[in-house]
């Protein structure tokens, strides 16, 4: 029948793209890496260094997921072809709608996997540190900052990434003034770099007794975690850095508010500020701050196309009207629109629950078109 023949031809047309996708994802090389890591995990002394062992097992899980996802995509296409042939032979028109829906799901999975091949930047595969700051809007902006943090946490969890909170400053009287977190997982930076910029909220404020509509802003900064070699190549004159210690103010255990373990570093030439209170000791927080400062200076140097840190000047985002990359409207209608790509979603609740893939994919596709 014509309808089933069209579906079959559509599925058959994916044979060559799927073969190219395998090469682009380096599936054979990844399979070799999996075998090598599995051998290492079987070594008697593997767990002697628990931190390194945990890192390797997480890496092994990520690689396995990549291969399993590709194999599942191949198997799904073969199953759909078989179902299409069977339904055509039996002239089963009742299954046509379900088959079309399944093919649409297959295409969506293929497109999602194809977009991973666009992550070809030198640091796209790395972990990412995101930092959110409340901007203009007072209490409403601090509440907006907490909403964004929840959104990114939900997105990360849905993609199998882990979230490690580095710094947390409560808002007064509600929300978050600022928060930094490490998102750990393959391609975390490649996906999240699309979120860099100012995010705008329009809604009826729950903090306004008169029930008026408010506009609030928060900024999102995204930097990659650098490898050890790159970190070693970045030299910082510590005489240019002001180091402050203070008591942790965020969520935590008994050590919170007992000793000055939290660390804040200010790089005077650029005005860049980093802080960390996630670790139990001041020394550990200091080391994390230095890594974050190096990553920010490196990102700033790349953006400014300069080689000397002394020549850099901080580029602080204007967290206010006219500088937003994306607007989230809760009333009088619901709409989330990206100003750079034009991509839109009307289900604002779904977006706030972490459904960001459409925006990220539109950004990555747009970058490919520009190239």
Explain the overall architecture:
The chain has 371 residues and is an alpha+beta fold. It folds into 2 domains: 2-116, Up-down Bundle (Methane Monooxygenase Hydroxylase, Chain G, domain 1); 124-371, Alpha-Beta Plaits (2-Layer Sandwich), CATH 3.30.70. It contains 11 helices and 11 strands. The longest helix is centred in the first third of the chain and has 41 residues, at 50-90. The two termini are 42 Å apart.
What's this entry about, in short?
This protein is α+β, with helices and mostly antiparallel strands and 371 residues long. Helix content is 46%, strand content 20%.
Figure out the total of helices.
Answer: 11
The chain-level structural class is alpha+beta
SSE pattern: HHHHHEHEEHEEHEEEHEEEHH
Rg from alpha-carbon coordinates: 24 Å
Q: List how many beta strands DSSP finds.
A: 11
CATH overall fold name of the largest domain: Alpha-Beta Plaits
* Straight-line distance between termini: 42 Å
List keywords for this structure.
single chain; 371 residues; alpha+beta; Methane Monooxygenase Hydroxylase, Chain G, domain 1; Alpha-Beta Plaits; 2 domains; eight-stranded mixed sheet; three-stranded antiparallel sheet; 11 helices; 11 strands; globular
């Amino acid at each position: 029948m014509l309808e089933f023949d069209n579906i079959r031809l559509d599925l058959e047309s994916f044979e060559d793209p799927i073969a190219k996708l395998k090469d682009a994802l380096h599936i054979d090389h990844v399979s070799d890496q999996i075998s090598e890591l599995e051998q290492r995990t079987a070594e008697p002394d593997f767990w002697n260094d628990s931190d390194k062992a945990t890192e390797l097992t997480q890496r092994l899980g990520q690689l396995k997921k990549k291969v399993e996802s590709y194999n599942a995509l191949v198997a799904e296409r073969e199953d759909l072809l078989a179902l299409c042939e069977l339904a055509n032979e039996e002239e089963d028109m009742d299954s046509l709608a379900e088959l079309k829906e399944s093919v649409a799901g297959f295409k969506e999975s293929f497109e999602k996997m194809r977009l991973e091949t666009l992550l070809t930047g030198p640091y796209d595969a790395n972990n990412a540190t995101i930092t959110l700051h409340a901007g203009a809007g007072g209490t409403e902006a601090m509440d907006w900052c907490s909403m964004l943090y929840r959104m990114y946490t939900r997105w990360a969890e849905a993609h199998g990434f882990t979230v490690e909170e580095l710094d947390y400053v409560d808002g007064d009287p509600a929300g978050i003034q600022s928060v930094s977190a490490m998102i750990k997982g393959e391609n975390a930076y490649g996906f999240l770099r699309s979120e860099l910029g100012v995010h705008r909220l329009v809604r009826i404020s729950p903090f306004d007794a008169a029930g008026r509509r408010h506009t609030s802003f928060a900024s999102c900064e995204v930097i990659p975690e650098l490898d050890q070699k790159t970190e070693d190549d970045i030299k910082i004159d510590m005489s240019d850095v002001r180091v402050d210690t203070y008591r942790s103010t965020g969520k935590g255990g008994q050590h919170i508010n007992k000793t000055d373990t939290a660390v804040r570093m200010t790089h005077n030439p650029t005005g860049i500020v980093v802080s960390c209170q996630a670790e139990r000791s001041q020394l550990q927080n200091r080391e994390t701050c230095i890594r974050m400062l190096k990553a920010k200076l490196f990102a700033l140097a790349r953006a400014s196309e300069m080689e000397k840190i002394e020549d850099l000047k901080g580029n602080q985002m204007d967290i206010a009207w006219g500088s937003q990359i994306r607007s989230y409207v809760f009333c009088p209608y619901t709409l989330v629109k990206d100003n750079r790509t034009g991509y839109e979603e009307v289900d604002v609740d779904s977006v706030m629950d972490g459904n960001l893939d459409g925006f990220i994919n539109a950004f990555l596709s747009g970058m490919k078109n520009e190239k």
